[in-house]
Write a structure and sequence with these properties.
It is a single chain. 8% of the residues lie in helices and 71% in strands. The chain is built from 1 helix and 9 strands. Strands 1, 2, 3, 4, 5, 6, 7, 8 and 9 form a 9-stranded antiparallel β-sheet that branches.
Length: 192
C-alpha cells in the first residue's frame, strides 16, 4: 500500500513536471584593483543556454535543477602618452562556464497556463576557461628614428603561468534568485 501510494505520488508529480529549454543575456560587473590603487569597474556581456526540469512538489512549490552553459566577454583599452611617444594596452577577457542551478520556486497561478514565479537557490559552477589576452603597442617618433613594437600575452586565470599565480578558482558556488512570468508556453525570467 505504501509503495502504491509513493508510485501514485511520483506519477502525479511527473504529470505536472515541466522540461524547459532556455537562452538569454548575461551581464556581470567585474571590479579590479591593482595594488592599493583605485578600483576599476568593467561590464562583461554574454549569453547562456541550457535546460531545466521542474517537478512540482506541493501546491505551487517546485524545485528546478538544470544545466546551463554560459559565456562572458569584455574588452578594455588604455592609452598612455602623446602623439610622439605613447603606449596602448588592449585587454580582451573571455570566460566559459558550466552551471548547475537548483532553484526552489513558487508559482502564483492566474488563468489557464499563466503564472508569476519567484525562485531562489544555489548554482554550482565549473569554469572551463577564463583568460585575458593582452596586446601592448609602443610607439615612438623621435624625428630621425621611429619605433613601433607590439607584444602579445595570454593569461589563464585558472592555471596562471611562470610569471603570475592563478587568480580565479574554476569551482564556485553562488546563491541566486529572481522573478518570472509564464504566459502559456512562453516564460520570461529576470535573475540575480
Amino acid at each position: 500500500a505504501i509503495a502504491l501510494a509513493a508510485a501514485l505520488l511520483l506519477v502525479g508529480t511527473q504529470a505536472k513536471a515541466q522540461l524547459s529549454v532556455g537562452a538569454g543575456y548575461l551581464f556581470s560587473q567585474e571590479i579590479t584593483r591593482v595594488n592599493n590603487g583605485d578600483p576599476n569597474s568593467e561590464g562583461l556581456h554574454g549569453f547562456y543556454a541550457g535546460t531545466s526540469y521542474n517537478p512540482h512538489l506541493v501546491a505551487g512549490l517546485g524545485v528546478a535543477p538544470g544545466f546551463y552553459v554560459n559565456m562572458l566577454f569584455g574588452m578594455d583599452d588604455a592609452n598612455i602618452g602623446n602623439a610622439r611617444l605613447g603606449e596602448n594596452i588592449n585587454a580582451q577577457f573571455s570566460e566559459l562556464a558550466l552551471n548547475i542551478p537548483v532553484k526552489l520556486n513558487y508559482r502564483f497561478n492566474f488563468g489557464r497556463d499563466n503564472a508569476f514565479i519567484i525562485f531562489a537557490g544555489p548554482v554550482f559552477q565549473y569554469g572551463v576557461m577564463s583568460q585575458t589576452k593582452y596586446t601592448g603597442t609602443f610607439n615612438a617618433d623621435l624625428g630621425i628614428i621611429k619605433i613601433n613594437d607590439t607584444q602579445r600575452y595570454t593569461y589563464n586565470h585558472y592555471k596562471g603561468d611562470d610569471k603570475f599565480k592563478p587568480d580565479a578558482n574554476p569551482f564556485n558556488l553562488y546563491l541566486g534568485g529572481g522573478l518570472g512570468v509564464q504566459l502559456g508556453d512562453f516564460q520570461l525570467f529576470v535573475a540575480y
